[in-house]
Design brief:
The protein is mainly beta. The protein contains 1 helix and 8 strands.
Length: about 90
């Protein structure tokens, strides 16, 4: 995907929202900030620490990024803990 295509796609998204599919196939909207559990030590974050996602971004290759304390991390380092998801 080139930058022009990504810009067009991002017109329909918001850095303060994330849509997820729950374990029981329900579509849920999470509004930032939302809580996540750190799976492994990454950057300044430690495994099993609970942190808040301030924003959600997307890379040029469409990988989801969580902004936590003004630092960017790939989504797969975290487990979403929002009570509305369960």
């Amino acid at each position: 995907m080139n930058k022009k295509e990504l810009i067009e796609l991002l017109k329909f998204s918001s850095p303060s929202q994330l849509y997820i599919i729950t374990w029981n196939n329900l579509l849920k909207l999470l509004i930032c900030p939302f809580k996540v559990l750190v799976k492994v030590d990454i950057g300044l974050l430690r495994a099993n620490e609970v942190v808040w996602v301030d924003e959600v971004k997307v890379t040029l290759d469409l990988k989801t990024i969580f902004i936590i304390e003004n630092k960017a991390y790939y989504y797969y380092h975290f487990e979403i803990l929002d009570q509305d998801v369960e």
